[in-house]
Structure formats: C-alpha cells, structure tokens
Amino acid sequence: MTASSDQPHPKTFTAAPALSGSITVPGDKSISHRSLMLSALAVGESRVEGLLEGEDVLATAAAMRAMGAEIRRDEGGIWHIHGVGVGGLLQPQSALDMGNSGTSTRLLMGLVASHAITATFVGDASLSKRPMARVTEPLSRMGASFTTSPGDRLPLTMRGVCPAVPLDYRLPVASAQVKSAILLAGLNAPGITRIVEPIPTRDHSERMLKGFGADLDIEVEADGTRIITLRGEAELRPQSITVPGDPSSAAFPMVAALLVPASKVTIANVGLNATRAGLVDLLREMGGDIAIENPREVGGEPVGDLVITASALKGIEPDPANAPSMIDEYPVAFIAAAFAAGRSVFRGLEELRVKESDRIATMATGLRAIGVTVEELEDGIVIEGSGGALLTGGGPIATKLDHRIAMSFAIAGLVSKNGVTIDDMRPVATSFPGFTALLESLGAMA
Ligand SMILES: O=C(O)C1=C[C@@H](OP(=O)(O)O)[C@@H](O)[C@H](O)C1
Ligand SMILES: C=C(OP(=O)(O)O)C(=O)O
C-alpha cells in the first residue's frame, strides 16, 4: 500500500524565508478510520465529509468493503457508506492488506473477533515488525483464536467467534488502539464490556460510539482512571460525520511556523480534543506563540483555528504523563527542541519504539546526521538545542517507511544551512497527501 511507485522519492528541503498564509490540513486519521468502521456497522447509509484520503484510511475502506460494506466517494468528495449492521460482517475472500497502518490492523482485529469469520491480515515491512500481542491477548480472552508470525506479528490469521465473551479488562499499556479494538469487539458480544484505562488515551472511539447510539458510559475516578462500559449487541444508527483537520498533521506546519524567523501562519479547522492536543501545550511551554481562535465543536469534537507566530523557543523536560496526548507528535517536537535554546530531556516514551519505526532510534540517528548533539535513552532522548542558530543539515535521512520521520526532517530542512535530504517521501502519503505542496504554499523551499 505504501509504495505509490517502486522507486524511493528522495527530496531536499532548504532554508525558507518567513512562512505566511492560511491553510487547512487533511482530515483526522484516527477519526477517519473510526467513521468508516462504525458506518459500516450501522444499518443504513452514513455520510462522511472531510475523510482523510490517505493510504492508511483507504486500507480500512478496502477491508470494510471486503467484509460487506458498500462504500463510495461522490464527486463532491463526500463518502457514502452502507453498513451491514453489528454482527453482519462477511467473510473476506482474500487477505486484508493493512499496508503501513497499525490503527487499521488493530481496530479491525477487534471487529473480526466477535464475528464468526476468519481473516488474514498482511502489511508492509514496517507493519510486519509491530507487536500484535497487545490485541491478540485480550481478544483471545473474548474467544478469538490466532495463528501469528513469530513474535505475535503479521502476517496473522484470526478466527472470530460469535457469541464472543464480553471482557472486563484493565489496559496494561496506554493505547487507544487496544482500547478501541476491545470496544469494537464488545459491540457484538452479549452483555457488558468493561475497560479500565489508568492513563487516558484518545477518546474518539467513545465519542463516536455514543454518536452512533451505542449504550456507552464513562466514569472518571479521583486519580483520573477512566472506566468505560459498553452494552453489546448494539444497534448503530447511521450518521452524518464531519471530520476535523488532523492535529497530528497540523503539527508540522505549526512547528515550521514557530521555527522559521518572522513567520505567521494560520491553520484553520484543527481538531483540539484534549486527548490529542498535548503538542500545543508543550510548544507554548517552550515559549511558542500559538493562539486558538474560534473554538467550536464539529461532529462531537472540539475544533479551533491556530494562529502561530515565530518565537524563540527554550528547551524543556516535559511530563511523561502527557505522552499519550501527543504520542505521534514527538518526532517533530524533537526538531523544535533541536532549534530551541538549551537542553531538552524527553522520557517515558518507550511506546515510540514500536511505531512505524523505532522513533527514538530513527530520530537520534537522523538528528546526529544533521549536526545535532543527542543522547539516546532507553525511554527517550536528550537533545542539545542550537538556540535558534541554523542546523547544519545533510542527509540523506533514513525514514524507514515512517511518514512522521520524513515530515519531521523536512521541517528541520527549513531551518538548516545546507538543507536536509529525506531518502524517501513516499510514506507521507499514508497520512498527509499534499504535504510538500502545502508547505510550499506557505513559502517553504522544497
Ligand atoms: O487509536 C488511534 O487512532 C491511534 C492510537 C495511537 O497508537 P497506540 O494506541 O498504539 O498508542 C497512535 O499512535 C496512532 O497513530 C493512532
Ligand atoms: C503510529 C501511527 O499510526 P499507526 O499506528 O496507525 O500506523 C502514526 O500515524 O504516527
């Protein structure tokens, strides 16, 4: 899925004059996946506006079609989904190709778990290295069974079961993918599925399940632990969904506008759900001037327009407790730290080692290659900032099939003496089609 052609697409990003303009970013990836999955389980036609048309989401669409949903995009870019009803998924006739997408894989495994169907999941070289035990373990307790590649990895074949056993589960890892997989499995299990979430993670599944009419409750204990209960054998009602702009994509122009001197950029219609907006808080704490205008609600999610003015940043030692609220934004936060004044110490980030690449190691190697002094830690990284002096630059940076590594180093190129060369820009199409053109529209030199 990831390869839009057989050959790598290297690209060099060079020092930019002040960035300016007003842009929007493509739709939220997490919300897009969920809108296709839940629409496919509702009875009747749902419509989705602003769906992210990136390769990861298209992998989810293809899988839902293979399991019986009717999905089409009209000429105006609205997606129409005819669902099969909870419990109505069909046996796919061939392996489900998940491409580069961990979210598609883990959430769809949840869906399959409580249907009496067998499905094989395959993915690209990056996805085939990622751990799946975190979902096979709880889904096995619900009655599903698995044949996996060594280390609980893809390719894997799973046999779902109906009726599945509803689960009462305390999440051992702060993962919205694991939480969502169990909730989606619980939709077609008789009785109550209960999840205890000690560290809150993105709550799009809970919000959207409620929006589709599922019987879902959330209790928050004094220490912040969330207890989510879902009544199974739900009937979902079709919805009209508007997907907000993806804060994880907005992160790149946001950091670019802070770093490139004299920039002023507006990013309109960005999702600002508190379980996702940690980067805005972190950058503000570093001294970044980010204003939120027109705060509003779109499709059950908080949204706003971000106005970003170039700022001198200072190093930071962020609280690891906030990690889930910006988990995919760390690579570009490391670029901000490399340009800030003083040292930054990031800890508590072991989850970064099991993303599309080992994001601690890939970032450490890439940062060194462009002249930044870093120390790699087991669970994080120490970065010595340049205090606003241009980074040396260089490359080619090995992106390891990881879109966020490619985009992070593209932003580093905009504040470098010699430019930064990315070895392969193709993975960017998984989450942010039009990334380079959008940066260029702000005045960036790519
Ligand atoms: O649920 C989701 O949509 C996601 C959850 C996060 O993964 P984990 O659940 O593994 O933390 C995140 O990194 C991923 O990009 C999207
Ligand atoms: C980790 C990511 O996605 P996924 O887990 O869906 O591959 C990401 O988009 O940064």
Describe this structure in words.
It is a single chain. This protein is of the alpha+beta class. It folds into two domains: 11-27 and 244-441, Enolpyruvate transferase domain (UDP-n-acetylglucosamine1-carboxyvinyl-transferase, Chain, Alpha-beta prism); 29-242, UDP-n-acetylglucosamine1-carboxyvinyl-transferase, Chain (Alpha-beta prism), CATH 3.65.10.10. It is built from twelve helices and 22 strands. Strands 2-15-17-16 form a four-stranded mixed β-sheet. Strands 4-5-3-14 form a four-stranded mixed β-sheet, covered by helices on one side. Strands 6-7-9-8 form a four-stranded mixed β-sheet. Helix 3 (102-113) runs parallel beside helix 4. The longest helix is centred in the N-terminal third of the chain and has 13 residues, at 29-41. The radius of gyration is 21 Å and the shape is globular. Bound molecules: shikimate-3-phosphate and phosphoenolpyruvate. Phosphoenolpyruvate binds at residues 56, 101-103, 328, 355-356, 404, 431.
